[in-house]
Amino acid sequence: MGPREQHQRPSRRQAIQSGALSLGILGATALLARVSYQPDGRIVHQLGGSRQVRDFRHPTAQKVQARIAVARPTPQNLRPSAEELVRRAVDALGSMKSFVGRGDRVVLKPNIGWDRLPVHAANTNPRVVAEVVRQCFDAGASRVTVTDASCNQAERSFQRSGIWRAAYDAGAEVILPAPYRFRSMRLRGELLDEWPVYTTLIEADRVINLPIAKHHNLSLYTGAMKNWYGVLGGRRNRLHQKIHLSIADLATFMRPTLTILDATRVLLRNGPQGGNLLDAQDMHQVVASLDEVAADTYGAGLVGVDPKTVGYLRLGVERGLGSMDLTDLVLA
Q1: In the chain, what is the straight-line distance between the N-terminal and C-terminal CA atoms, in Å?
Q2: Kindly report the CA angle at 185 between 193 and 230, in degrees rounded to 5?
Q3: Span 12-331 CATH architecture
Q4: Model-level pTM greater than 0.90?
């Protein structure tokens, strides 16, 4: 079974022509005044020296019922299914129809970075991904795409994680990363300036971030904000010397429609890859949030990390990307 793709790989001539056209457009746009992004979240450029932003938030999202919601076990149900947890968390914010409209092209960005089984808790739970696919279609999406730029060999990571089959069976288009899907862009970040960007992840109407909460040996914790590393191509390991700054730059660039943090099974040690079953623990929780900083603040606590010690969370607060205050957290 292969991934569903609606476009064939372009020929070399087409790729050259397309690249020349893109460079021409970018060059011409650079001569114009700054363009602000539109309320519908479609792709725009912010120029004039400011950071670029891809804002995929739904215009009605400000009317949702809560900023962050957590679904977790109850005395009546100590082992809720992944599907139930997703439904409860998203419904606490007002249902998926608050974020996805009829005809929207939606891209889901799970963590599919590693050649690991679901039980290792290195990648997003495939059942969480499949449930979000179904909810997007139920809300009226015309197409749902699932993709990531894997760290390990992509085809093995997509297959062994269980995400390829689960997403495909739920009706999603599953796309493997390929060199021709990346385009060099000026992000204008404090650390990230010009870098290859995964166009599949930025050429959509809505983008839903689907990370997993887990330990990370460099950043201490990885979840929503760190998950945007999958937007980048090139030698991402070069960013590890200033990993917190690079994560903050990416979270500044990508403003998702919604964040759904998988904490059904959490990697507590030896992240981000894991591999030892003793390092992971079932927690049966899912977080839905409009605030990536808040989602990661909660997720870091699950991993046993003090959020105040995570540099990129502090940077996120300083940049106005969100808040570490969880006093308004809603239990779904």
Answers
A1: 37
A2: 85
A3: 3-Layer(aba) Sandwich (3.40)
A4: no
